[in-house]
Amino acid sequence: MDLPSYLKSGEVARLFPVISDSGKEQKATSIFLSVLSAVPKFADGVLSQIGQRVGTRAIVNTFIEVVPAKSVIANKKDRPDGLIEVQVGKKRWLALVEAKIGTSKLDKNQVERYLQLARENGIDAVITISNEFSSSPTHSPVKVNKNLIRSVHLLHFSWTALLTNAVLMHEQGERLDTEQAFLIREFIRFFSHESAGVSGFTSMPPAWGEEIGHIQAGGFIQKGDNAADIVSAWYQELRDLALQMSRAIGCNISLKMSRAHESDPELRLKNGSEFLATHGKLESILEVPNAASDLFITADLRAKSIKVAMKLDAPKERKTTKARVNWLLRQLKDIKLNDVKVGVVWASRVATSYFSLEELLENPEIVNEVTTSSEVRAFEVIVTTSDTRRFKGRRTVIEDLEDLVPRFYEFLGQHLRAWNPSPPKPVHSVQEKGSTDPKNPPIAKSEAGIAGNAHNDLLEIPNFLKRISGQL
């Protein structure tokens, strides 16, 4: 294949690249890009996340070690690792690719140079790939000059996210031809091996231990770099956790966030840092398709605990507190998970009441002892871990979080069912008064005996009309 006119130099991405043993980064990039071009459904699964659908008319071409036509690159090591071209008819979308593998981090200056290069060459985007995590492909882990991303999109994928896309394709049984299915299996095999250099999020930043020490000494978390570092790490970890859950469950688990935070990652980081400084907590929500509830995850730095919860509305058609509580307990009676708590949320201003699952199963009536003047509006089902020593550890807190959340969902969350109201029942049966045709129900008669006006007996003649007609 000849190089396109917009490239001065480069090579077609190969599944089996001829690269030296030290070129682990280039090898991973070439294998990824070659599979991207060879399996359209994989390309669509990846690129649709950044707004580029790959349909039946699309052609995906990929290249490595590229030098754009309008480029003066003196240093051979300072050239983009790859380029993606999506051609649909006469429309063409281009993206430079910069990848890091293992513990290598993305370099701000290098990314900014590639953004400048993309702008000069009319290239639409720069995609970075590394073992760093971002909440969304549109959220970059690198802060760059905003002027550079006005006309060029800066996008990011973690290697784990790309691997997860392939795993979900395989697990969900996407219809692929024999060769494409083989490529996806080999892609998973290669990037799952430790020698590939793909890794998850494993450690909170040094600021984690510092701020917990301040809290233990009676201090508070200050707004600033430490808080921002902790919140940024938390967001990375939750994204990694969502990907782990996706692979375990076999469907896409996503981080839930507001539209404002989705479109503005800096605002999200700012708000998260302020919340941490004010409340001493880190909070995130995982969205699980078709689950009874989202997963609400909280790390409380003051209590040194991790909490996972699901929230369910109480069944409104059950009139008594006991009936509503028993509706939930029937779902929980066979749960094999320790230290489960149930929060009872009241419709009035009464504070949420908390009970252990064991005491509720033994005596559901204890909920009535809280109040008889308010009805139960909702329930929270909660599991908390509070090992102070492990919570303080930068690595052990991640280990505990990644153990608790999947365990909560496997043994509890997947078994919960949300309340769905019963469908309305007809006021009168279509069989009444001898009618058997649902299209022609029996005609009701008013007390006045006027056929066809069954609503007349619901109407009262106003007094002024009675006076006019001489009835008064």
Short description:
The chain is an alpha+beta fold. The protein has three domains: 190 residues, no CATH class; 209 residues, 2-Layer Sandwich (BirA Bifunctional Protein, domain 2); 30 residues, no CATH class.
Q: Which properties best describe this structure?
A:
alpha+beta, 3 domains, seven-stranded antiparallel beta sheet, six-stranded mixed beta sheet, about 475 residues, single chain, 14 helices, BirA Bifunctional Protein, domain 2, about 35% helix
* Tally of helical runs: 14
Helix proportion range: 25-40%
**Roughly how many Å apart are the termini?**
100 Å
User: How much of the residues is beta strand, in percent?
Assistant: 15-25%
Largest sheet: 7 strands, antiparallel
Structural class: alpha+beta
CATH topology of the largest domain: BirA Bifunctional Protein, domain 2
In the CATH scheme, the class of the largest domain would be Alpha Beta
Instruction: Extract low-pLDDT stretches.
Output: 445-452
- Number of domains in the coordinates? 3
> Within the largest sheet, what's the order of strands?
7-8-9-10-13-11-12
Query: Which value, in Å, is the CA radius of gyration?
Result: 30 Å
Give the tally of β-strands.
Answer: 13
Helix/strand order: EHHEEEHEEHHHHEHHEEEHEEHEHHH
Mean pLDDT over the residues: 90
CATH architecture of the largest domain: 2-Layer Sandwich
Shape: globular
Helix-strand blueprint:
Blueprint: E1 7-12, H1 24-38, H2 40-47, E2 58-68, E3 82-88, E4 91-99, H3 108-120, E5 125-130, E6 153-158, H4 159-171, H5 178-192, H6 207-216, H7 225-249, E7 254-255, H8 259-263, H9 265-279, E8 281-287, E9 295-300, E10 305-313, H10 321-332, E11 340-346, E12 353-356, H11 357-362, E13 376-385, H12 388-392, H13 396-411, H14 463-469
Parallel strand pairs: 4-5, 5-6
Antiparallel strand pairs: 1-2, 2-3, 3-4, 7-8, 8-9, 9-10, 10-13, 11-12, 11-13
Helix pairs in contact: 1-2, 1-5, 2-4, 4-5, 4-7, 7-9, 7-13
